[in-house]
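Section 3.1: Structural characterization of target chains.
Under the original work plan, the team committed to producing a structural model for every single-chain target entering the pipeline before any wet-lab resources were allocated. The record below documents one such target. The sequence was received from the expression subgroup and is listed exactly as submitted; it comprises 181 residues.
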Amino acid sequence: MTEMRHREWGAERAGDPIVLIHGAAGGVGNFAVQFAKMKGARVIGTASKKNHEFLRSLGADETIDYNTTKFEDVVHDADVVLDTITGEEMERRSYQAMKKGGIYVSILTPASPERAAAQGVRCHHTFVQANAEQLSEIAKLVDSGKLKLTIEHVYPLAEARAAQESNAAGHTRGKIVLKVV
């Protein structure tokens, strides 16, 4: 598998849903890549070049270096776009990469239902809420080796502010953890 380079890729694999994940190497994105693959999706991840091999190790079928390639120029007919970056421009650009009837999911900022409808797509905003049953299922997947857990950095609880600042700066590969001792 190689980085997507100036070639169009769309629904040439009939039946496989296409999922485009922005910020695919981050704390949410890297899990999303793995969950989408578990469900049989064809996964395309946007990330800096240094994270492409990491994404392929998680199961990404294609990677796009957001520094050199506009994803909307090479991705067409995505069924789902998961946006962990968000913002009106990212939303607008994502609609260009989607097929009609597809769904744009934002985890940070609610998308505009009016803009989505005007493009013939749907949008959804999701906010994480702790769910013991789901967390237990995820833990089982990690314990069995079916889901890879990547930890970028572990901070002692006393350095929670530094952990938050690191997270806010972005470009994290995997999770940032607070250690309670």
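The chain has seven helices and eight strands.
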